[in-house]
Amino acid sequence: xxxxxxxxxxxxxxxxxxxxxxxxxxxxxxxxxxxxxxxxxxxxxxxxxxxxxxxxxxxxxxxxxxxxxxxxxxxxxxxxxxxxxxxxxxxxxxxxxxxxxxxxxxxxxxxxxxxxxxxxxxxxxxxxxxxxxxxxxxxxxxxxxxxxxxxxxxxxxxxxxxxxxxxxxxxxxxxxxxxxxxxxxxxxxxxxxxxxxxxxxxxxxxxxxxxxxxxxxxxxxxxxxxxxxxxxxxxxxxx
Length: 239
Fold this sequence. Notes:
Mean pLDDT: 87
Number of helices: 8
Low-confidence stretches: 220-224
Radius of gyration: 24 Å
Structural class: mainly alpha
Strand content: 5-15%
Distance between the termini: 49 Å
């Protein structure tokens, strides 16, 4: 029941956070159309908001009911990277995320006039950087690292901090090839969020994280060996 409750709070926080980040990034539109702010059914979410909102939603519930936030967060880190990757596969189908033009054999070209790419400056029938593929590859790389360090990075919560840091690095770099709105100094909203997350997670990891050596890993104790056959044990017990 507790896991379901934490998940529900995380989902609610994720939805609210994802919508909040999208609205902030498109404030020019929502300032003139405030009634559309809550119209999430019309589309418009930001992944960073979903991740951060989901974390804070679950963490608030865990704090209120005194559940171990660090352990729970560490358990979700590999799953989140996997789910993010699956979600990005859907972006291929929809033609989402505007990208910079790229004249290369590995470039993507959206050809369906109904694709979401139609709203991009480099839209239909234009070769662009496969930014979705870049992020998927980075997520898989991060997942390998996270998976290898599960149960080895202490104290609790450091694995999740590493997940946030790794995702921030990848998202910051890939976003240079995307064509979202520039906020300031040539950077987009996702990049500023990534820098804030890195400013928190990197010092935290440097100050607290440690890798547990192999010889200190806690393993399951071996099951006790049976004392012979059942008949032999009966004779032994009678004696």
